[in-house]
Fold:
Amino acid sequence: MEGKIIKIISNSFTVLSDTTYICQARGKFRNLKITPLVGDNVIFDKEKKIISDIKERKNSLVRPPVANVDQSLIVVSVKDPDLDLYLLDKLVCLVEFNNIKPIICFTKLDLLDDTKNIDEIKQYYMEIGYQVFDNKDDRIRNIFKDKITVFAGQSGAGKSTLLNILNSSLNLKTGEISKALGRGRHTTRHVELINLLDGWCADTPGFSSLSLNEMTPSDIRDNFVEFNLYRDKCAYKDCMHDKEEDCEIKRRLGTDILKSRYENYIKFLRKEKI
Ligand SMILES: Nc1nc2c(ncn2[C@@H]2O[C@H](COP(=O)(O)OP(=O)(O)OP(=O)(O)O)[C@@H](O)[C@H]2O)c(=O)[nH]1
Ligand SMILES: [Mg+2]
Ligand SMILES: [Zn+2]
Structure:
């Protein structure tokens, strides 16, 4: 039968098919040095309760260990902690690099007197092709169906608060540092996908400790998606939009290209503050 691994505790794999089955994995995976992950689509024997094959993955993350991630919901507070566009751009770039769709959700707009600046920023990220929400926007409920979502964003940004709003039976703790809990639980291998609005989400946030180190400068460039719209007008075919003369990206700085995006891009290239 075919199914999806939705929970792993040590060497027990919960596979969802017509119902859930608690399975073991065949020894061959250990020999092949492949670890079945939550999110994996597998072939299993429902009588013997053994997973025999893992179907090809579209991607896999190390932290949290999840396969076939469709999208990452990047949660960004506009205050407390302060709006951090550097972190936002880093996460968007990393998520893109992993072939995962970034979706952005701003939180804590209620703590600002004036949201004009945030409205402009939201508008920009939408224009370059991203879905952007704030945490009071009900339309966000539609993005989860049939998808595996990994939440990302700074501690205190409001990830657990948002998850509780989306699924009140989750009852996640908010307003306290969740890291200790995450680490403690993962000493014995325990990863789970949580049912969320007809889709799935990982029970721990992702991308918290990822750096851009494994990306080459051109990987970084290519994952600033809006640069790809204009780069054919740069004088050099392989323009890095950095020190080159006659660069279309630099010409459009402050009009079509948000200044902070470009500045963060240059910081990533120089590996500053990473
Ligand atoms: N005013 C306001 N406070 C919020 C909002 N969203 C979350 N908070 C508060 O911000 C604090 C942190 O929220 P959490 O949901 O715990 O943040 P988190 O992203 O899960 O943080 P970690 O688990 O540490 O990664 C809590 O005290 C929440 O009540 C919001 O939209 N407005
Ligand atoms: Mg939390
Ligand atoms: Zn250029």
